[in-house]
Amino acid sequence: MTDTPDAPGAARDALRTMGKLTRDEGIVAVAFAFMVTGWVLAGTLNLSLAAVAFAGLGALLATDVLTLDDINLQEVPWSLYLAGSALCIERATERTRLHGFTSEGG
């Protein structure tokens, strides 16, 4: 299939039937755009990829788009992800001067 002349019209019709974006859909779209931009520019702006991800999660939680009840409904408990991220953070601090600061009390 190389030619789909009806695709633009079908897409317009589908969008029309879906209606306008809801508040939550708009917030998710903006948060996603900021997160992708943050990940793309992370090296240039010296941003942590994890910090960008947690900022996006925080924005969704702060605006009630995502709730803790939503998170708890997932099949894999988020506590597992949080424990894994804590281990990753510890590993990262071991490779930096921050490890000496945190383990020796400054």
Give an overview in words.
With 106 residues, the protein is an all-alpha fold. The protein has 2 domains: 45 residues; 33 residues, no CATH class. Helix content is 72%, strand content 0%. The protein is built from 7 helices and no strands. Helix 2 runs antiparallel to helix 4. The radius of gyration is 20 Å and the shape is extended. The mean pLDDT is 82.
Number of separate domains: 2
Number of strands: 0
Mean pLDDT: 82
- Low-confidence stretches are none
Name the shape in a single word. Answer: extended
Range of helix content? over 70%
- Helix count equals 7
Strand content: under 5%
Overall structural class, as computed from helix and strand content, comes to mainly alpha
Distance between the termini: 65 Å
The topology string of helices and strands comes to HHHHHHH
Q: What about the largest sheet?
A: none
Rg calculated over all Cα atoms: 20 Å
